[in-house]
Design brief:
single chain; 184 residues; alpha/beta; Rossmann fold; 2 domains; five-stranded parallel β-sheet; two-stranded antiparallel ribbon; Flavodoxin_dom; FMN binding; FMN; menaquinone-dependent protoporphyrinogen oxidase activity
Length: 184
């Protein structure tokens, strides 16, 4: 299967997630075309791919503007094929159902804004990259993590992504995509 993978990243963890899923897909024999939405790439014609997966982090209640613009500009082509969206957020690791619902609301707003409605959505937990943050951001996120019962050791980074759940999501999407082609 030919799979188009679009992404945007802010701190680099979404790039790691996309690298992992690209490697997994290629090992399974799929042809993957990767597009960083901040670059100058264009979406190929719909007959050049069979499915699309987009991935982006939620920051301050929204996905990165470059991805939003890119998807909106190419929504008609993207809608011609089955699509999946991977939303990356620390809130995905939260036990608070309200925080998880906020992520789902962000995806809904993304679809309304861009006109692209993926058939499958996965909320992947991100990472706390304490070692990369400036003093204020590190302090603020440490306080939030402490209130949530999360890690507060700022001498190292903390990753929360459930790689097995991500792999299962991608595998299921790829298996169901051929059955949905032409029915969207």
């Amino acid at each position: 299967m030919r799979i188009l993978v679009l992404y945007a990243t802010v701190e680099g963890h979404t790039r790691k997630i996309v690298g992992h899923l690209t490697s997994t897909l290629e090992k399974a024999g799929h042809d993957v075309r990767l597009i960083d939405s901040t670059g100058d790439d264009t979406v190929p014609a719909a007959d050049e791919f069979d499915a699309v997966i987009a991935a982006a982090p939620v920051h301050v209640g929204s996905f990165p503007a470059p991805l939003r613009r890119f998807v909106k500009a190419n929504a008609e082509t993207l809608m011609a094929r089955p699509g999946a969206f991977i939303s990356v957020s620390l809130s995905a690791a939260s036990a608070d159902k309200g925080e998880v619902q906020e992520i789902a609301d962000c995806v809904e707003e993304f679809s309304k804004e861009t006109g692209w409605w993926p058939i499958s959505i996965h909320h992947a937990a991100g990472a706390l990259k304490y070692t990369e943050y400036d003093f204020f951001r590190r302090w603020m996120l440490k306080r939030i993590a402490g209130k949530e019962g999360g890690p507060t050791d700022t001498s190292r980074d903390h990753e929360f992504t459930d790689w097995n759940a991500l792999d299962a999501f991608v595998k299921e999407f790829v298996e169901q995509a051929p059955n949905l082609a032409g029915k969207i």
